[in-house]
């Protein structure tokens, strides 16, 4: 059942290179400026994944300019986790990190178990198919949680 969109949302995963940038990009594309949206990873040791960029481009979502960042970098840049209304963890490690970092702050942490597609398929077409599956899982969770996309263009890409 769709709920109200919080004022600020942080998506997080392990490296901020696949799942959380996809979620951030789709959230911004589907819901515009309704919420302040960012993403982060437990680590920042990878660039945004090319397959993630490709499958997001297929639905009109641009993530190629995304710069991966960690929870520690967020803190250094003044984006404290406590300033977010909702943290959506897309991996077990990011859920643990978010809960640890927010244990003294009263904020909602949701866990959406989205599989990491890294290294799970051989060959370009198989990888693209797997990444599309991950993209579609995230898209479906966004729509389930926040309701239908707000713009017609975003609605078409949600199909």
TrEMBL record:
InterPro entries listed in its UniProt record: Ptyr_pPase, Ptyr_pPase_sf
UniProt entry tagged with the keyword Lipid biosynthesis: no
Coiled-coil region(s): none
Gene3D superfamilies: 3.40.50.2300
Keywords: Arsenical resistance
PANTHER family: ARSENATE REDUCTASE
Protein's recorded name: Low molecular weight phosphatase family protein
Organism: Paracoccus litorisediminis
Upper taxonomic lineage: Bacteria, Pseudomonadati, Pseudomonadota, Alphaproteobacteria, Rhodobacterales
